[in-house]
Amino acid sequence: WKLPEWEGEHLSLTHSNYGDFLQMAERLIVQGKLPEYFLEDGEKMRQIYDILGGNGRGLTFFASASALIKNKDEEAEFLTALKNSQHKIQENMAIEKIYAHISEDARLLLSRLPAYHVPVPLDGILKLETNEEILNELVGVSLVEVQTEKEWDVVQYQIPSLVVDWLHQKDLADSALKWRNVVADYQLYLFEEKRKTLTQAIIVHGALERAERQAEADSLALDHIVGTLNMAGLYVNIIERWLPQIAISPDFGTRAEALNQFGLQHKHLGNFKQAMLYYQKSLSIQQEIDDKANEGATLNNISQIFKAQGDYPIALDYLKKSLSIQREVGDIQGESVTLNNISNIYQARGDYEMALEYSKMDLIICRKISDKAGVGTTLGNIGNIHYMQGDYAIAFAYLKKSLAIQEEIGDKAREGRSLGNISTIYLAQGDYATALVYFKKSLAIMQEIGDKAGEGTALNNISQIFKAQGDYPTALVYLKKSLAIQEKIGAKAEEGAALNNISQIFKAQGDYSTALVYLEKSLAIRQEIGDKAGESTVINNISQIFKAQGDYATAIAHLRKTLAIQKEIGNKAGEGTTFNNIAGIYRAQGDYVTALDYLKKSLAIQEKIGDKAGEGTTLNNISQIYDTQGGYATALGYLEKSLAIQEEIGDKIGLCATLFNMGHIHWQNNEQDEAMEKWLMAYRIATEINEYKALQALANLAPQLGLEEGLAGWERLSNQYPEGQ
């Protein structure tokens, strides 16, 4: 095989034909490494070929040894010895012959070189108390290899493994701790000053371990290796390869940190019980050694297990304990993290006012301690809270500020997440084209930095754009890519989410049995890992399958299970949605009084928590109850309220639905002009954003109005009556 773009010579590692062997010999003669008379003596050249088995590397060593032989008798003796020896030791005999003829200083350097396990630049070799002249002596006889490292644009040197093995066999390698320390220090210097990469960090880690500097190796692994591997989704590798050694460190602080990392990796894998065990062990050590700062951090981590399981009250309890300790010891940075996490709990529960209060406290601290990364994160969180409330313009402003900071400081991971959050706003507003641009930017960053979990999330998000546009095959392709990543890295919570979203594609296509299969798989994962919030979402979606099939009793039973979980974990936003869905079941059964009662409960929650998008949807649904009962004026009043909210927050998808429903009410009141005006407005918006459901509804309506089939009639009317006329 050959290295791509390698400009040097290629030496076969196995048997080559005689012609190629002669060409290699010619190059060595030109380079002055093989006496010219060898090529002139065909019989001798064939003898050398047979002895070396056509091995290119063997020829190089033979040439170096031959160049050092001045006596013809000695040369003949050497050839005979090679011929009579076993193939495995022929190269060793060549090395031995070379070694016998190099200077004492070269032998000294050669004995120290095995301390380096990877190629290094000249200054690294010089650390072994030698000079360039001695190094070149070894290079000249092929005992040291030279290569160009293109990434760092530097020439590097390395002793071949064959030579290393020979030195160890002959007990000539100098394995003194002094040289192992020299190597560790030099590799550490390269890492800190020139090569801040994962590869170099791993090289340093090995060098530190060989230098018997385990404590430094452990710290380096925790600070520079584990985090990068974690981002790449290599959770199992971290658990099996990196953490076991650190977890038995004699330093209790380091041991506790390793146990904490064990907990974090198991959390990523959805092994919440194991994660909790490791966190508890870490906490116990920190309390024993009175490490208050890290105790606060571990309490914070424990809270995230309960949050992931949807147990928000207990999560909040741990976070408040953490906050108390951090304020006691003056850990301002830790306090900032905890305030942010408390905000996220309130956001998950739908208590947006409290979420905003804690995020603003966090922002004050981040600005006070000049934590730009923290400021960027917190501005993003505030943006997300406004998004959840339907305040898209304000949310967008905060997320743009967050993104600008992350771009400025080069925080790629959070930049990718911010781009994803911005695209979510465009998606909610029905601006699918712009949403797709931002999602793809987010995906590109996640792939660039190797954030596998983030890549899976981005693929999942992109799928939702295609789903909204009715392009179910493409949506499914992206979801299956996302699922494959989550399964590969073992991210069970995200796997459950992907399975849930795949189910919704099949549901939208009317394939309820397949949808139910995916939902049951998702539910099993949610229940296995104890994800109560996720469990309630899946049960809710299962209820909608039974509703679509007309099995209202089973649908209601599932919705009541959902509601019970949401009340248990304090998920107010979820309660509002579930009340809306329960109302939909009663409406489908013709029980409008009960349906209206549930819708008003939903509306009250949404008004209280500031969920404007949800409020607009519920007002629309209330209007449908009055419309069905003939209360057209009341229905229109609710729709106008809904329309005002959707225009305020820029919810184009909601506008399509509301305008479509307003058109029906006007038509039922014999207000044909007003009806057509509203339907044309809905058509124009739906066409602009490619809103599949609205366009499908309009296409179905066209024949009833005497228009051409499909959307052709609406397009003709749109051209005939320009906007504003």
The chain-level mean pLDDT equals 89
Give the strand order, joined by hyphens, for the main sheet. Answer: 1-3-2
Beta-strand segment tally: 3
Main sheet characteristics = 3 strands, antiparallel
Oligomer: single chain
Give the class-level CATH name of the domain at 104-212.
Mainly Alpha
- What structural class do the secondary elements suggest? mainly alpha
- Assess the beta-strand content as a share of residues: under 5%
Q: pLDDT under 50 segments (min length 5)?
A: 1-14
CATH topology of the domain at 104-212: Arc Repressor Mutant, subunit A
Report helical residue fraction.
over 70%
Shape: elongated
How would you sum up this structure, described in words?
The chain has about 725 residues and is mostly helical. Among the domains are: about 20-100; about 105-210, Arc Repressor Mutant, subunit A (Orthogonal Bundle), CATH 1.10.10; about 370-445, Serine Threonine Protein Phosphatase 5, Tetratricopeptide repeat. Helices cover about 80% and strands about 0% of the residues. The chain has 38 helices and three strands. The protein is elongated.
